[in-house]
Design goal:
Belongs to the protein kinase superfamily. Ser/Thr protein kinase family. GCN2 subfamily. This is non-specific serine/threonine protein kinase. Pfam families: Pkinase. Helix 7 packs across helix 8. The termini are far apart. The protein has about 300 residues and is an alpha+beta fold. The strands form 3 sheets. A 6-stranded antiparallel β-sheet has the order 1-5-6-4-3-2. Strands 7-9-10 form a 3-stranded antiparallel β-sheet. Strands 8-11 form a two-stranded antiparallel ribbon. The protein folds into 2 domains: about 110 residues, Phosphorylase Kinase, domain 1 (2-Layer Sandwich); about 140 residues, Orthogonal Bundle (Transferase(Phosphotransferase), domain 1). Helix content is about 40%, strand content about 20%. It is built from 10 helices and 11 strands.
Length: about 300
């Protein structure tokens, strides 16, 4: 067939687009190079590539291991020159480049909100990727295990308010988290923060740049209705808080008001679930809002 008369296959465009993403995200072979997609970043000026130590070793001092996730390990560090504390996520080198690229890109995309774990910068070095993020003291899952005999219902209300605000912020930006669980909810002093944006879904972008995941199957992949997709986060969040109630001694002290809210968030028909905005406007959250406004919250960590 004459190439000039050949009709363009839409599928070829998708393949080429993905190829460009991977090509753009290809890490350098030697030395340290900034990793970014939407927001340009640079390496610290104190870095000297002529020295033996890596960028990681020259700029940061590792304090202790913080934990691990599906895509890498997290360590608490001190910046050697500013003495500020951070957490650094070392992304597994075995992961395909496109996964690393999406991880960095997703963190850039979510932007800033006080109830989201803050992202600072990232770099590639020796086929590995590193991300600098806000250091939080512990995860909700670990906190619950450590304090399961002394948990109070106020913790659940405070968490509902903070993570609810984080989800409302994401949903208004047409972003679905798709992985709301206790391991991804972090605690920093009196606040709860949502982290780990490796599985977010941006409803404003072409579908073909996202891989199909188990999270995508929760909201029918053939439907891109904003309300339906964001309702997956509402359901997962309610399941997380309900799991804490069931697994701890707090069960006997939980009020009916909280149980009713969680049951509404977990109904199987997504159109019957309230949005996060509707939950936050509930009169039952007023005491939690007053505790936050007047700084009356318990110091959790």
């Amino acid at each position: 067939m004459d190439r000039q008369n050949k009709k363009e296959d839409p599928g070829e465009k998708k393949t080429d687009f993905l190829g460009e993403l991977v090509k753009k995200a290809e890490p350098p072979k030697k030395g340290a190079t900034p990793a970014y997609s939407l927001i340009q970043v640079s390496l610290e000026s104190e870095y000297d590539p002529s020295l033996d130590g890596s960028y990681y070793q020259q700029i940061y001092t590792e304090i202790k291991y913080a934990g691990s996730g599906a895509f890498g390990d997290v360590f608490y560090v001190i910046q050697n020159f500013t003495k500020r504390r951070y957490a650094i996520k070392k992304i597994k080198s075995a992961l395909p480049t496109r996964y690393i690229y999406n991880e960095v890109r997703n963190n850039e995309k979510v932007g800033f909100h006080p109830n989201l774990v803050k992202y600072y910068t990232a770099w590639y070095e020796d086929h590995n990727a590193y991300m600098v993020i806000e250091p939080c003291q512990t995860s909700l899952s670990k906190f619950v295990v450590d304090k399961k005999d002394t948990l109070q219902e106020t913790l659940l209300w405070d968490c509902l308010l903070d993570i609810g605000n984080a989800l409302q912020y994401l949903h208004k930006r047409s972003i679905v988290h798709y992985d709301v669980k206790a391991d991804n909810i972090m605690i920093l002093r009196k606040s709860f923060k949502l982290g780990d944006f490796g599985n977010i879904y941006d409803m404003k972008e072409p579908r073909h740049i996202y891989r199909r995941t188990v999270f995508d199957s929760l909201a029918d992949a053939t439907i891109i209705d904003r309300r339906e997709r964001s309702s997956v986060d509402v359901y997962e969040f309610a399941q997380t808080l309900s799991g804490i109630i069931e697994e701890t001694r707090i069960t006997k002290r939980v009020t009916t008001k909280l149980l009713v809210i969680l049951s509404r968030m977990k109904v199987l028909i997504h159109t019957s679930r309230p949005s996060m905005e509707q939950i936050l406007n509930s009169h039952d959250l007023r005491p939690a809002k007053r505790r936050l406004e007047h700084q009356l919250r318990e110091l959790y960590t």
